[in-house]
C-alpha cells in the first residue's frame, strides 16, 4: 500500500509538471497535503500556493512559500522556483512514508532527529533499510531500497541533479535503472548544528569538506516481476535471510493484492487543445498487482498475517472514507495556480482574510455571505464549492479594483471559466484586452474602467452572452462600438464613456431590452440616433450621450422610466415634440416644464450642502440641511418644493457627501464647510417656484479631498465648469488653484442672474479635465460645493413659504430627551477618558520600572518637534510607516518612526522591546532616545543620522564618494557593533536582519546598526533557537533559511555579504550585469579561485590598500561558509580585520554556490536531458521576508517591521 501511494503521488506530480496544458508547480508537497480515498488512492490537495508559468521559463523568482523541512535549498535561500522544488519535497515525502515518521522529530536520539541525516548515515554504512518503520514486518526489500535510492536522488542539493517526475515514475516502476552515482548533499554535511569542532583560521583546510563522497548503487532490472516489470535495486551486500535461513521472498508473497485498481488524483477539468477532459481519469495509469499463490512456505504464520492485513485494510478504508466525507472541498488547481501566478506577476499581496497561503476557497472566500459584506477586503475572491458533489470549488468572483496594478491582463485570466464577477477597474493596467476574456462565458459583470487599455474591444467578448454589466469607461479604446453588443441581450448596464470610440451608435443596441443605464458620453461617436429604436428600452433609467458629435433629432419613444437624460455638447436639432420624451418624474427639475410656471411661492433659498442639520449664518441666513446621499443618477426635492438637487455619475466606493474636521481660518461661518457634496460627473441645484426677477447667487467652495501634504494625494486636481441658467459662468474652475494653492481654504463665487420662468438651475459639470481618479475610498474627481445661497435684488411680493407649526409639547419632549442623551454621553465620555488615562499611566509605569528607562515622550512634544508631522520632514517611508525628522527643545535632532498598526505587538512586548534596545549602548548602534505611547500608533524616537544608510552610500544615489579608508572603517565599525550584540551585551542578541540598508552613517561616517524589529534574545547556553524565518533574501544563512535554526552565526553570514557589497560597491544580486557577475558571492569565489580576488573591488576606488582589501575579502568568504561552525565568532572577525591574527588563506568553497549554479550542469542519466536554468531580472529585487510559522505553511510576500 505504501509503495502504491508513493507511485500515485509521483504520477500526479508528473501530470502537473509535464502533462497539463499549463505548467504547475505545487509548492507545498508534503504528507499532510496527500489525501487517501476509500481505496487508499493518493490525491494531491491544497493548491493554494500553486504557481503556473510559461513552459519556456527556466525558473520563476518569487516570494517563498511552503513548509519548513520540505523546502529545496535554492528556493529557500534565493527564491528561485522550478518544478524541481516539488521533486525535492516529494523525496522527503517518500522517506517519511518508508520510515513512518516526520522529517524532524526532536523526541528521538540526536543521530535520528533529522531524517535526511539519519538515512544518509545508514546509507553510507550499507544499512539503508534501517530506516524502514519497525511495524512493517514484511516488505519487498529490493523495492524499498529502490525507493530510498530515488528519494536520495530527488533530495540532491543541486536542482540539476534531481530527475524530472516522469523519470522518477520510470525509476520507481523499474522501467529505467536508478542513476548509479549519488552525491551526498552538502546541506547535510555542512549543517551539523551539534558537534563540529574547532575551525582553523591559520591556513589549514577544514577536513569536513574532504569527505565529499560519491556513492555507487547498482540498480538492475529483474525480469521476474511479472506485470509490474519492476527491477530490484541490488545492494553492495546481500541482505541475510531472516532467522539465518534461506530467503524465500516472503515479503513479496505476504503483500495484499488488489486487482486492477486505478490511481486517481482529482485536480479538476483541464483545457486541452482537443477539448476539456477530466483529469480524474488521466493522472495515472492502471496498476495491476498480481496476487502470489504460493502460501505454503509461510506456514500458519503467513496465513495469519494475510488475514490481519485484510482486516487492517478494511478498517483503514472505513476510517478514510468517513474522514473523506468530512473533508472540505478543494479549489480547482488550474484556477489556483493561475490566480497565484497573476498575483505574483503583479506583485500583489492578497488579503489575509482569504487563505492565499493554503486553500484558496476557504474562510471568507467560501462562506455564504455576499460580496458587499466585506467592503474593506481587497483583493477579494468568492468561490462556489458545489461542483463534483461538493468536493471541488471554482472561483466565481475576483475583485482587484483600485490595487495600482500595471501592465497587461495576463492570458491566464481565461482559466477562470466559472467566473461570474470580475473587477479590474481603477488600476493603471494597459495594453490590449486579451482575447481569453471571451472564455469567461459565465460572466455576469465585467469591470475594466479607469485603466489605460488601448486598441479595440476583442471580438471574443461577444461570447459573454450572460453579461449583465459591462463597464469599460475612461480608457483609450478606439474603433467603432462593436455591433456584437446586440447579441449580449442580458446587458443591463453599459458604461463606455471617456474613450475614443468613433462612428455611429450601432443599430444592434435596440436588442438590449433589459438596459437600465447607457453611458456613452465624452467619446467621439457621431451621426444621428435614428438607427436605434429607443422605444425598446422599457426599463431605461439613465441615458448619458453628452460631449459627442451626435446630430439629428432627439431620440423618440423614450420610456417614462427614464429619470436622467443628458445630451449636452452635441449638435441635436431642437424639436418641440421632443418635450414628450421627458419623463414625468423630473418635470419639477426641468426649466421648460410647467411645474411652477406663473405661480411663484418663494424669493430665496440657501443650502448647507451635505449637512444633516440647518445652520443660521452670521448674516441670519438659514442654510437648510441637505442630507440625502444621492445615487448614480438620482434627484431630491425638498418637502416644501423650494429647491432640489440631482446628480449624475457613479464612482466605485465613493459617497457624494464629504466630511471634514479641518479648521477654516478665512471665513466666519466655518461650520458651513464641515461637509460638501460631490458628484463624479454632473451636479445640479434647482430653485423651484421662485418669483421672477434679478438674483444674486453665492456659491461657496473649499477643497476637502486633496490635502496640502507632500504626498501623491496632494497632486490631485479638481477641474469643472459652472453653468447658471444654462450659461457658462466659469470654465475650468479649480477650487484649490483659486485659493492660492491651498486646500481647506474657502473660495466664494458670486453671480448676478435673471429668473424668468420661476425656475433657477445651478449646474456644476465635470468636462473630463483634472485628475481622472483619486485612488482612495470616498474620494473622486467631480465637482464639489460646500454651500450656496440665492437672494433677490428686488422687493419680493410673495411670503417665501409658510413653515408648518410644531406643537409645544413635541418641542418640550424633544428638549428633555436631548438633555438626557447629552448627560449620558458626557458620563460615558468621562468614563472612557479616565480608563484611557489609567491605561497610559500603567504603560508609562512599566517603562519607568524596566532596565534602561527610556524617555517617554508625549504626543504633543513630538508633534511640536516635527512641525505637526509635516510632510516636508519625512525622511523615508516603508512598510513600517513614515520616519520624520524633528528637533527637541534641547536642540537634539531626532528621527521619529511611526510604527504600523499591523505589527500586532501587545503593550508588554512593545515595552519590553523598547527597554531592551535602550539598554544596549554602543558607539556602533543607533541610540534610541525613547518612545511615545499616547498616540494612535506607537512612536519610536531615534538619534538623527545625517548621512543616511550604507546602501545609498555605496550603490545608491548618495554623493558621499566613500574612499577605501572610509569603507574599511565602516566595515570594522559594523563588526564591533555586532560583536557587542553577540558577546558583550548583558543579553545575547541576534539581529536577524543585518544588511546595508540597516546600517546608518552619522556626520563623521561612523556606522550604526539600526532596525532591531526582528532581533531575538536567547540564553547563552543555547546552541540555536528554532524560530520562524525573518530577514532579507540574499543575506539569509542556509541553515536558517531551510530549517529555521537561528544562532548568532546567521548574523555573521549576513555581515560577510555586507562586507563584499561594501568592497565591490554593488548589491549582492544585480541582473543588469553579465551572467558570471550577477551573484556577488559566486563572482567573488570565481575570482578568488583564479587568484584574482581584488577584481571585485569597486572600480571607482582608484587607490586602496591591497593587503587590507585582500584581508577583508578573505574574512568575508570565511563568514559566508555553508556550515555555521566554519564561520568565526564576531570577536575573531574583528581581530582578523585588524590584523591581530592571521586570516586563513585556504577557504573551502561553500556548496550552496557549487550546487546552485543555475546554468550548466546536468542530471546524470542514461538519457541525455537538459535542465539548464536562466537568470530572471525579477531576482534583482531584494525580497524581504516576514516572520512565518515554523510548523505550518508559509507564504511570504513582503515583510513588516516588528519594533
UniProtKB/TrEMBL annotation:
Classification via Gene3D superfamilies: Galactose-binding lectin, Phosphorylase Kinase, domain 1, Ribonuclease Inhibitor, Transferase(Phosphotransferase) domain 1
Enzyme's top EC category: transferase
The enzyme's E.C. designation: 2.7.11.1
Domain Protein kinase: 1-176, 869-1143
Transmembrane stretches, start-end: 809-834
SMART domains assigned to the protein according to its UniProt record, in alphabetical order: S_TKc (SM00220)
The protein, known as: non-specific serine/threonine protein kinase
Species assigned in the record: Oryza meridionalis
Upper lineage: Eukaryota, Viridiplantae, Streptophyta, Embryophyta, Tracheophyta
Amino acid at each position: 500500500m505504501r509503495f502504491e501511494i508513493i507511485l500515485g503521488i509521483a504520477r500526479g506530480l508528473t501530470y502537473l509538471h509535464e502533462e497539463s496544458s499549463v505548467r504547475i508547480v505545487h509548492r507545498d508537497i508534503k504528507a499532510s497535503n496527500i489525501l487517501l480515498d476509500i481505496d487508499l488512492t493518493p490525491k494531491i490537495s491544497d493548491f493554494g500556493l500553486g504557481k503556473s508559468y510559461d513552459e519556456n521559463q527556466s525558473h520563476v523568482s518569487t516570494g517563498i512559500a511552503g513548509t519548513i523541512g520540505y523546502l529545496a535549498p535554492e528556493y529557500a535561500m534565493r527564491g528561485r522556483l522550478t518544478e524541481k522544488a516539488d521533486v525535492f519535497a516529494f523525496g522527503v515525502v517518500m522517506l517519511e512514508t518508508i520510515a513512518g515518521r516526520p522529517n524532524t522529530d526532536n523526541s528521538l536520539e540526536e543521530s535520528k532527529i533529522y531524517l535526511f541525516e539519519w538515512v544518509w548515515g545508514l546509507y553510507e554504512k550499507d544499512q539503508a533499510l534501517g530506516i524502514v518503520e519497525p511495524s512493517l514486518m514484511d516488505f519487498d526489500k529490493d523495492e524499498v531500497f529502490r525507493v530510498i535510492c530515488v528519494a536520495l536522488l530527488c533530495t540532491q542539493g543541486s536542482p540539476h541533479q534531481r530527475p524530472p517526475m516522469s523519470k522518477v515514475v520510470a525509476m520507481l516502476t523499474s522501467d529505467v535503472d536508478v542513476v548509479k552515482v549519488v552525491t551526498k548533499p552538502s546541506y547535510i554535511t555542512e549543517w551539523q548544528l551539534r558537534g563540529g569542532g574547532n575551525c582553523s583560521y591559520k591556513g589549514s583546510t577544514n577536513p569536513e569538506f574532504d569527505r565529499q563522497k560519491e556513492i555507487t548503487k547498482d540498480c538492475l532490472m529483474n525480469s521476474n516481476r511479472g506485470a509490474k516489470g519492476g527491477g530490484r535495486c541490488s545492494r553492495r551486500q546481500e541482505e541475510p535471510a531472516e532467522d539465518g535461513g534461506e530467503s524465500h521472498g516472503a515479503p513479496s508473497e505476504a503483500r495484499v493484492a488488489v486487482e486492477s485498481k486505478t490511481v486517481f488524483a482529482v485536480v479538476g477539468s483541464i483545457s486541452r487543445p482537443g477539448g476539456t477532459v477530466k483529469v480524474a481519469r488521466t493522472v495515472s495509469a492502471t496498476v495491476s498487482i498480481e496476487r502470489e499463490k504460493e502460501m505454503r512456505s509461510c506456514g500458519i504464520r503467513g496465513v495469519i498475517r494475510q488475514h490481519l492485513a485484510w482486516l487492517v485494510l478494511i478498517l483503514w478504508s472505513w476510517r478514510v472514507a468517513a474522514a473523506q466525507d468530512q473533508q472540505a472541498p478543494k479549489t480547482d488547481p488550474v484556477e489556483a495556480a493561475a490566480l497565484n501566478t497573476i498575483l505574483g506577476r503583479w506583485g500583489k499581496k492578497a488579503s489575509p482574510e482569504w487563505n492565499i497561503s493554503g486553500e484558496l476557497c476557504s474562510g471568507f472566500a467560501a462562506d455564504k455571505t455576499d460580496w458587499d459584506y466585506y467592503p474593506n477586503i481587497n483583493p477579494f475572491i468568492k468561490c462556489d464549492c458545489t461542483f463534483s458533489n461538493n468536493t471541488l470549488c471554482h472561483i466565481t468572483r475576483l475583485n482587484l479594483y483600485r490595487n495600482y496594478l500595471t501592465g497587461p491582463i495576463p492570458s491566464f485570466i481565461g482559466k477562470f471559466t466559472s467566473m461570474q464577477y470580475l473587477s479590474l477597474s481603477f488600476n493603471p493596467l494597459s495594453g490590449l484586452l486579451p482575447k481569453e476574456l471571451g472564455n469567461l462565458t459565465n460572466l455576469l459583470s465585467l469591470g475594466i474602467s479607469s485603466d489605460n487599455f488601448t486598441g479595440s474591444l476583442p471580438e471574443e467578448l461577444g461570447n459573454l452572452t450572460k453579461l449583465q454589466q459591462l463597464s469599460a469607461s475612461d480608457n483609450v479604446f478606439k474603433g467603432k462600438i462593436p455591433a456584437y453588443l446586440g447579441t449580449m441581450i442580458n446587458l443591463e448596464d453599459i458604461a463606455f464613456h471617456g474613450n475614443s470610440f468613433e462612428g455611429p451608435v450601432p443599430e444592434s443596441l435596440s436588442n438590449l431590452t433589459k438596459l437600465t443605464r447607457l453611458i456613452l458620453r465624452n467619446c467621439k461617436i457621431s451621426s444621428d440616433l435614428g438607427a436605434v429604436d429607443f422605444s425598446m428600452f422599457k426599463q431605461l433609467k439613465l441615458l448619458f450621450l453628452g460631449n459627442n458629435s451626435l446630430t439629428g433629432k432627439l431620440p423618440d419613444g423614450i420610456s417614462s422610466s427614464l429619470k436622467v437624460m443628458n445630451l449636452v455638447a452635441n449638435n441635436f436639432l431642437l424639436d418641440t415634440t421632443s418635450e414628450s420624451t421627458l419623463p414625468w418624474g423630473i418635470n419639477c427639475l426641468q426649466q421648460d416644464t410647467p411645474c411652477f410656471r406663473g405661480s411663484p411661492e418663494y424669493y430665496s433659498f440657501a443650502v448647507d450642502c451635505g449637512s444633516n442639520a440647518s445652520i443660521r449664518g452670521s448674516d441670519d441666513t438659514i442654510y437648510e440641511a441637505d442630507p440625502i446621499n444621492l445615487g448614480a443618477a438620482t434627484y431630491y426635492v425638498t418637502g416644501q418644493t423650494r429647491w432640489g438637487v440631482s446628480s449624475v455619475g457613479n464612482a466605485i466606493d465613493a459617497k457624494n457627501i464629504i466630511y471634514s474636521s479641518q479648521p477654516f481660518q478665512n471665513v466666519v461661518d466655518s461650520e458651513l464647510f464641515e461637509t460638501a457634496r460631490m458628484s463624479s460627473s454632473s451636479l445640479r441645484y434647482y430653485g423651484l417656484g421662485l418669483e421672477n426677477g434679478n438674483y444674486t447667487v453665492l456659491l461657496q467652495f473649499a477643497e476637502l479631498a486633496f490635502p496640502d501634504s507632500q504626498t501623491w494625494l496632494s497632486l490631485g486636481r479638481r477641474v469643472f465648469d459652472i453653468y447658471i441658467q444654462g450659461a457658462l459662468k466659469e470654465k475650468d474652475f479649480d477650487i484649490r488653484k483659486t485659493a492660492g494653492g491651498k486646500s481647506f481654504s474657502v473660495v466664494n463665487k458670486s453671480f448676478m442672474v435673471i429668473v424668468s420662468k420661476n425656475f433657477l438651475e445651478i449646474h456644476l459639470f465635470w468636462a473630463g479635465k483634472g485628475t481622472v481618479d483619486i485612488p482612495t475610498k470616498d474620494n473622486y474627481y467631480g465637482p464639489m460645493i460646500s454651500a450656496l445661497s440665492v437672494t433677490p435684488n428686488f422687493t419680493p411680493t410673495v411670503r417665501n413659504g409658510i413653515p408648518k407649526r410644531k406643537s409645544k409639547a413635541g418641542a418640550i419632549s424633544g428638549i428633555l430627551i436631548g438633555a438626557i442623551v447629552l448627560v449620558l454621553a458626557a458620563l460615558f465620555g468621562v468614563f472612557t477618558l479616565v480608563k484611557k488615562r489609567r491605561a497610559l499611566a500603567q504603560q508609562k509605569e512599566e517603562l519607568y520600572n524596566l532596565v534602561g528607562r527610556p524617555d517617554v515622550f508625549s504626543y504633543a512634544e513630538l508633534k511640536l518637534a516635527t512641525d505637526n508631522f509635516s510632510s516636508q520632514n519625512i525622511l523615508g517611508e516603508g512598510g513600517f510607516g513614515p520616519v520624520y525628522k524633528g528637533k527637541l527643545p534641547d536642540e537634539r535632532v531626532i528621527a521619529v518612526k511611526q510604527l504600523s498598526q499591523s505589527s500586532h505587538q501587545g503593550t508588554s512586548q512593545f515595552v519590553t522591546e523598547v527597554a531592551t534596545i535602550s539598554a544596549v549602548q554602543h558607539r556602533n548602534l543607533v541610540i534610541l532616545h525613547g518612545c511615545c505611547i499616547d498616540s494612535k500608533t506607537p512612536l519610536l524616537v531615534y538619534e538623527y543620522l545625517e548621512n543616511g544608510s550604507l546602501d545609498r552610500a555605496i550603490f545608491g544615489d548618495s554623493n558621499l564618494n566613500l574612499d577605501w579608508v572610509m569603507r574599511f572603517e565602516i566595515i570594522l565599525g559594523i563588526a564591533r557593533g555586532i560583536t557587542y550584540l553577540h558577546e558583550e551585551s548583558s543579553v545575547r542578541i541576534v539581529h536577524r536582519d543585518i544588511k546595508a540598508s540597516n546600517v546608518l552613517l552619522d556626520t563623521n561616517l561612523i556606522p550604526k546598526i539600526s532596525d532591531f524589529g526582528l532581533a531575538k534574545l536567547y540564553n547563552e547556553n543555547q546552541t540555536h533557537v528554532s524560530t520562524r524565518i525573518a530577514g532579507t533574501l540574499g543575506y539569509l544563512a542556509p541553515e536558517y533559511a531551510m530549517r529555521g535554526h537561528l544562532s548568532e552565526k546567521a548574523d555573521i553570514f549576513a555581515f560577510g555579504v555586507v562586507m563584499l557589497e561594501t568592497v565591490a560597491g554593488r548589491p549582492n544580486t544585480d541582473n543588469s550585469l553579465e551572467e558570471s557577475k550577477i551573484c556577488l558571492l559566486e563572482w567573488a569565489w570565481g575570482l578568488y579561485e583564479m587568484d584574482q580576488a581584488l577584481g571585485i573591488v569597486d572600480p571607482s576606488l582608484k587607490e586602496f590598500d591591497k593587503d587590507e582589501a585582500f584581508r577583508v575579502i578573505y574574512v568575508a568568504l570565511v563568514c559566508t561558509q555553508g556550515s555555521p561552525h566554519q564561520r568565526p565568532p564576531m570577536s575573531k572577525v574583528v581581530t582578523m580585520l585588524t590584523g591581530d591574527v592571521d586570516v586563513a588563506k585556504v577557504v573551502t568553497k561553500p556548496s550552496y554556490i557549487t550546487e546552485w549554479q543555475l546554468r550548466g550542469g546536468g542530471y546524470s542519466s542514461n538519457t541525455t536531458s537538459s535542465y539548464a536554468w536562466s537568470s530572471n531580472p525579477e531576482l534583482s529585487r531584494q525580497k524581504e521576508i516576514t516572520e512565518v510559522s515554523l510548523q505550518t505553511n508559509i507564504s511570504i510576500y513582503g515583510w513588516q517591521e516588528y519594533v
